[in-house]
C-alpha cells in the first residue's frame, strides 16, 4: 500500500493507472476506521480495480467546532487495517492540501431541499461542507466507482445530486449499514460514548425497527410520538424521527406503499447518533 499525503503525489501515483485504462475504486472516510468502513473497502475490492481510501477529517463539514475537536483519530491503526484489506493507496492529505485557499469560502452547491431538511436542519452548512470536500477529492482521485454507506443515507443522496450537477459519471455504490450485535450502527463516534450511554445507544435502531414494523397499520404521527417518547425515556435528546420518500427525503405523513425510509437522529450522553431503516 502506498501512503499519499499530497495532491501532487496523488497525481503522480494515480494518473498513470487511470490513463493506462484501469479505473480506480474510491472509498472516502474520515478515519477512526471500523468494520463498517472496511465493508466498503471489501466491496470496492470486489471490483478488482485498485482501491483508493482517503482519510481526511473534513473541517468544512463540522457545524459544531467541539464535535470537530473531539472527533476520534487513529491513523496508525487505520493504515494497518487498510494495508491488511489490500487497499492500494491510502490518501491522507493535510487541510492545506485540500483547501489551499482556506476552509470557509462562500459555499453554494445547489443541493435543494436536501440541504435544509433532517440532517441539514440540525447541522446547518454540513452538506455544503460535504459537497465541497467530495468535489475536491473526486477532482484529485477521479475514480470510476465510489463506495458510500447507507448509514449516512442523506449524504448518499447529496453526493448523487452533486455528481449529477458536476456531470461526473461514475458508478455509485451504496453499501448496507454494518451493526454491532446489539443493533447499534457502527460509527466512529461510538468510541466517544460512555459505558452508560453505550448501553442505551442501540435503542435508536430499536425505535426505527419498532416504527417500521407498525407503519403500514397505524398512523405515523401516533407511532412517531410513541417512539420518540421511548427514546426520551431512555435518555435520548431526539432531533427527529421521520418517515420519508426514499428518493428525495421529503417527510411523509403516512406509509404510501412504495419503499420509504425511516430516519432518526439524537444525542445520548452528549454524542449525536444517526441511523435509518428502509420501510416497505
Ligand atoms: P465517515 O468516516 O463517518 O465519514 O464514513 C465514511 C464512509 O463509511 C461513509 O460513506 C459512511 O456512510 C460509511 N459508513 C460509516 N459507518 C458505516 C456503517 N456502520 N456501515 C456501513 N458504512 C458505514
Structure, described:
The protein is of the alpha/beta class and 280 residues long. The protein has eleven helices and nine strands. The strands form two sheets. The protein has a six-stranded parallel sheet with strand order 1-4-3-2-5-6, with helices on both faces. A three-stranded antiparallel sheet has the order 7-8-9. Strand 2, helix 2 (35-45) and strand 3 form a beta-alpha-beta unit. It is globular and about 55 Å long. The N and C termini lie far apart (42 Å).
Write the layout of secondary structure elements.
Layout: E1 2-4, H1 7-19, E2 25-29, H2 35-45, E3 51-55, H3 65-69, H4 75-84, E4 89-91, H5 95-98, H6 119-122, H7 126-141, E5 145-149, H8 153-166, E6 171-175, H9 195-200, H10 203-212, H11 220-233, E7 237-245, E8 260-268, E9 271-279
Parallel strand pairs: 1-4, 2-3, 2-5, 3-4, 5-6
Antiparallel strand pairs: 7-8, 8-9
Helix pairs in contact: 7-8, 10-11
Adenosine monophosphate binds next to helix 2 and strand 5.
**What ions, cofactors and ligands are bound?**
adenosine monophosphate
β content, as a range? 15-25%
* Terminal CA distance: 42 Å
Fraction of residues in H or I helices = 25-40%
The main β sheet shows up as:
6 strands, parallel
Anisotropy-based shape: globular
Q: Rg from C-alpha positions?
A: 19 Å
- Helices and strands, in N-to-C order? EHEHEHHEHHHEHEHHHEEE
Uncertain stretches of 5 or more adjacent residues? none
Number of helices: 11
What's the total count of β strands?
9
